[in-house]
TrEMBL record:
Name of this protein: Valine--tRNA ligase
Domain of life: Bacteria
Originating species: Deferribacter desulfuricans (strain DSM 14783 / JCM 11476 / NBRC 101012 / SSM1)
Similarity section: Belongs to the class-I aminoacyl-tRNA synthetase family. ValS type 1 subfamily.
Residues engaged in binding ATP: K528
Entry's EC annotation: 6.1.1.9
Gene Ontology cellular component annotations, sorted alphabetically: cytosol
Motif ('HIGH' region): 46-56
PROSITE patterns per UniProt: AA_TRNA_LIGASE_I (PS00178)
The keyword Coiled coil appears for this protein: yes
Length: 872
């Protein structure tokens, strides 16, 4: 029985149904015992607290394109999914829930609090997984992992203990990013920097036993309570005489040695620097270099402690106000100057971060970084686009030890036990019963947990069962590619490379593809505060997953941010409709007799479309392999819409309706449609599956095979291209001279005998598609004609009797006035300095576009008027 499609497409009718069918039939499950060549990707694990945003949507769409393409190419494919426990974020979620009950985590205690977090995770965590399914992500969901599950926890402990015993993990006082609200250290990635309007406070520090004063500029006067030195540049002539002397700290009267170091910027402020080793990362390094005392003046909540003298008990910002007031009253404050600078905020609660000295756990990173640098230098790992390789090296060559401890409860608790009797730190693969040094049983476990990135760094191999030697690891490690955003190139990607090389003695992946950001249509970063966020789930609901996915892929050019608007998604929804309508037309005309192509009975246009099909499949494949997703999407879009629909289907309608080699026309069309659906499938999984099953009668499109059959009909391809050029030339004339679409016209062609033969052979198609009454051949110029000149022919379209020259000139003159008005309006705006200063950038860009469009239209109208006048 002949299958047909409904008149209108509604993705909601089949997307969920098809996805559930794929899951039931285990199409996405990877078989580690397969003989097929492996292709594997591990998903960048989204936070368990997260919901699908545009970054996730882009990232996972691109991964799915790679995965589905390789599945169709005959690879044994593993796309391994999972979520990250997101220590700080998840703890904050559960703490907010407790606060609504009038409780804090301290009311519950550590054990009960962790139980509540697990309970929340089971009930509400991981909603993003279901959202990824809505997107069509073809992950092996049976292998889903969580960074806190038992297997990964075992891997984390194995790595920690191994590194500790090798001396690569240590505990020390170090300057860290501290959140006074979350009460934890933060990694550099967890600190968001914002440009804020601040101030430079110019403060006099008296020189001991002298009337001289040293003027110092600072943005944080409250930290002067912890000053232990003043630094100047040894090459600074202004201060050479002070090196080795002492300054007196105002208010606290502490003696501060004046040291010399080339680190000091002579151009910033006054060129003299207050050194606060306990509250500034650069000062901390200076302090270590010169053996300076480290005085911490704040507690965990950013409150001034006993080291702050009479300011003890004040919030750091209140202390700032009072210190500045006292300095002013004592005559130590010269001036306050406006100063914009970058201020770090906690990425979760937005509190201003305090650099603060603290006892923390660290990974000695340089020994691990050496091999990771080498792996990229030697090409074992390739980064796409290439420009990010330079950034990777800059980070890796300037790497600092990694602070891995966090002062929260949710996470992998550090497996270290302190002996109450002798102070020895016990670290082992199993929980110790007694101190390995003195034998005491009085042991207390470290309260800190590991940085979330620590467990994520093991993701490519821990998710496959390491430290056990599993078949999954043997088959699928190293993974083939990692798709991720540029913002975690160092914080995650580099650390995975280091850990993979250390514990698997091999790279974790061969390719790293770095995608750009999805911004709004004006190039602004999407944010809730700006109100410019586009919700992926709403877009999928409105337009279907296929249109949404294809839009993202079509704009995913390497190294360029995506400017996304809903209109662009609407545009590709029209493409989905085109696929549907073309498929519906062909399926309505197919019958049970249409099967194999009769290759001995092909028409010229049949060979042309098969030639195009082969070239398109080859080009799309090339672009997918080079991660040029936008080029791949554009290639198949152009082929399907313009070559297959606009030309080939129009070519064969004449044959279908007049029963001229109809069976073979439909056989070629059916084959081309099926193969096109396969090329489209990685980008648009749902509609391609739905149509393919009805069209072919086969179970699924998921395993392809991807089109590989070679069709090379070069001569026929070139001949049909000439026919298309001829038709397009005539259509251009009709458009330029406003000839009514229903009006059949006569044309004259000046050409070679060879081209004449081709035109005569295809005259029926040419006449039908260009609305031509008669095709005449000539060796002369035809007067009062529109002329189109090409390499192989010249076309003359006699216009006398077709159009009223005078009326057409008047119409164009009237149209010209409108564009002249636009040029005047937008030209004035764009030459107005005040307007350019005040108007938003996207409005200015819009005006520029309108101005340029008006200029272009004006040029076209002037040319048309000149042409018409020459024919009068």
């Amino acid at each position: 029985m002949k299958e047909e499609l409904p008149i209108r497409i509604d993705p909601a009718d089949f997307e969920e149904k098809l996805y559930n069918e794929w899951l039931e039939k285990k199409y996405f499950h990877a078989n580690e015992n397969s003989d097929k060549p492996p292709y594997s990707i591990v998903i960048p694990p989204p936070n368990v607290t997260g919901s699908l945003h545009m970054g996730h949507a882009l990232n996972n769409t691109l991964q799915d394109i790679l995965i589905r393409y390789h599945r169709m190419k005959g690879f044994e494919v593993l796309w391994l999914p999972g979520t990250d426990h997101a220590g700080i974020a998840t703890q904050n979620v559960v703490e907010r829930m407790l606060a609504q009950e009038g409780l804090s985590r301290h009311d519950l205690g550590r054990e009960k609090f962790i139980e509540r977090v697990w309970q929340w995770r089971e009930e509400s965590g991981g909603q993003i997984i279901n959202q990824l399914k809505r997107l069509g992500a073809s992950c092996d969901w049976n292998r889903e992992r969580f960074t806190m599950d038992e297997g990964l926890s075992n891997a984390v402990r194995t790595v920690f203990v191994t590194l500790y015993k090798e001396g690569l993990i240590y505990r020390s006082n170090y300057i860290i990013n501290w959140c006074p609200r979350c009460h934890t250290a933060l990694s550099d990635l967890e600190v968001e920097h914002e440009d804020k309007e601040g101030a430079l406070y110019y403060i006099y520090y008296p020189i001991e036993n002298s009337d001289e004063k040293l003027l110092i500029a600072t943005t944080r006067p409250e930290t002067m309570l912890g000053d232990t030195a003043v630094a100047v540049n040894p090459n600074d002539e202004r201060y050479k005489h002070l090196i080795g002397k002492y300054a007196i700290l105002p208010i606290l009267n502490r003696r501060l040695p004046i040291i010399a170091d080339e680190y000091v910027d002579m151009e910033f402020g006054t060129g003299a620097l207050k050194v606060t080793p306990a509250h500034d990362p650069n000062d901390f390094e200076l302090g270590k270099k010169y053996g300076l005392e480290e005085i911490n003046v704040m507690d965990d909540s950013g409150i001034i402690n006993e080291n702050g003298g009479k300011y003890k008990g004040l919030d750091r910002f209140e202390a700032r106000k009072q210190i500045v007031e006292e300095l002013k009253n004592l005559g130590y404050l010269e001036k306050i100057e406006k100063h914009d600078h970058s201020v770090g905020h906690c990425y979760r609660c937005k509190t201003v971060v305090e650099p603060r000295i603290s006892m923390q756990w660290f990974v000695k990173i340089k020994p691990l970084a050496e091999k990771a640098i080498e792996a990229v230098e030697q090409g074992k790992i390739k980064i796409f686009p290439e420009m990010w390789t330079k950034t990777y090296f800059e980070w890796m060559y300037n790497i600092r030890d990694w602070c891995i401890s966090r002062q929260i409860w949710w996470g992998h608790r550090i497996p270290a036990w302190y002996c109450e009797k002798c102070g020895h730190i016990n670290v082992d693969f199993k929980d110790p019963e007694k101190c390995e040094k003195c034998g005491s049983t009085e042991l207390t476990q470290e309260t800190d947990v590991l940085d979330t990135w620590f467990s994520s760094a093991l993701w490519p191999f821990s998710t496959m069962g390491w430290p056990e030697k599993t078949k999954t690891l043997e088959k699928f490690y190293p993974t083939s590619c990692l798709v991720t955003g540029f913002d975690i190139l160092f914080f995650w990607v580099a650390r995975m490379i280091m850990m993979g090389l250390k514990f698997m003695n091999d790279v974790p992946f061969y390719h790293v593809y770095i995608h750009a950001l999805v911004r709004d249509q004006y190039g602004q970063k999407m944010s809730k505060s700006k109100g410019n966020v586009i919700d992926p789930l709403i877009m999928i609901e409105k337009y279907g997953a296929d249109a949404f996915r294809f839009t993202l892929a079509a704009f995913a050019a390497q190294g360029r941010d995506i400017k996304l608007s809903e209109d662009r998604i609407v545009g590709y929804k029209n493409f989905v409709n085109k696929i549907w309508n073309a498929s519906r037309f062909l399926m309505m005309n197919l019958d049970e007799n249409i099967s194999e192509i009769d290759f001995d009975n092909l028409e010229m246009e049949d060979k042309w479309i098969l030639h195009n099909l082969y070239q398109t499949a080859k080009n799309v494949e090339k672009f997918i392999k080079s991660y040029d997703f936008n080029e791949a999407a554009n290639e198949i879009y152009q082929f399907f819409w313009h070559i297959f629909c606009d030309w080939y289907i129009e070519f064969i309608k004449h044959r279908i309706y007049n029963n001229i080699n109809k069976t073979n026309a439909l056989a070629v069309a059916k084959y081309t449609l099926e193969e096109s659906l396969k090329i489209l499938h990685p980008f648009m999984p749902f509609i391609t599956e739905f149509i393919y099953k009805k069209l072919s009668g086969k179970e699924t499109i998921n395993f392809g095979p991807y089109p590989e059959k070679e069709f090379l009909f070069d001569a026929d391809y070139k001949n049909i291209e000439k026919v298309i050029t001829l038709i397009s030339n005539v259509r251009t004339v009709r458009g330029e001279y406003n000839i009514p679409p229903a009006k059949n016209i006569n044309i004259f062609i000046k050409t070679s005998d060879e081209m004449k033969s081709l035109i005569e052979q295809k005259s029926d198609i040419i006449k039908k598609l260009a609305k031509i009454e008669n095709i005449n051949f000539t060796d002369k110029e035809i007067e009062k004609s529109a002329v189109q000149i090409e390499k192989d022919f010249t076309v003359f379209v006699p216009l006398e009797g077709l159009i009223d020259f005078e009326a057409e000139i008047k119409r164009l003159e009237k149209e010209k006035k409108g564009y002249l008005k636009d040029i005047n309006i937008y030209g004035k705006k764009l030459n107005n300095e005040e307007y350019l200063k005040k108007a938003p950038e996207h409005i200015i860009e819009k005006d520029k576009a309108k101005y340029e469009e008006a200029k272009l239209k004006l040029e076209e109208i002037d040319k048309s008027i000149e042409r018409l006048k020459s024919l009068c």
